[in-house]
Design a protein that fits this description.
The chain is of the alpha/beta class. The chain is 33% helix and 17% strand. Bound molecules: adenosine-5'-triphosphate (ATP) and magnesium ion.
Amino acid sequence: MCFRINQLEGGEGLIQVYTGNGKGKTTAALGLAIRSAGAGFNVYIGQFAKGRFYSELSLLKRIKKIEVEQFGSRCFIRVKPGKKDIELACEGLKKAKKAISGKKFRLIILDEINIALNLKLVSLQEVLSLLRSAPRGKEIVLTGRYAPLGIKEIADLVSEIKEYKHYYKKGVKARRGIEF
Ligand code: ATP
Ligand code: MG
């Protein structure tokens, strides 16, 4: 069977949120980045609260249509975020503003921005006003667990990935090429 797809070249830009405690938020966003770049669009990916190497980075950096940057320290934020974490997140938000207001990028992915909001590294008001001021035609994806209500309300799509089962509960550690 063949479905008719409403094909809009570029089309209206919408706001998407991938949140919840299950696995698959960042990888869903990366999948969308590949689809968009494949369609010829420029994609910006800003990773908040992440400074460690993730295997996808080596490949993404080789794709001309995708620009990826990290705004987090090398260590995980375990207790209270430090000054450096806040500085990096604020820098990330500045870059996000530039990517959203500029002409180049069609898709802007703010990976783990919900975590940055949850840790109060960036202010909810600032992120909301950035989303409100986005020019038409910009697709914006926000990922990370604990998406605040304000973000879910402004979004056009919210996918909440629920953990039904996760192998980490039986002691499986994060694996290269699967988790990082
Ligand atoms: P992915 O990057 O695989 O798409 P995600 O973006 O949905 O996952 P995050 O909440 O960003 O998930 O978590 C990052 C990674 O850490 C995920 O791959 C997840 O499987 C793993 N993870 C989450 N919680 C734990 C935990 N408590 N112990 C071990 N690994 C965990
Ligand atoms: Mg993630």
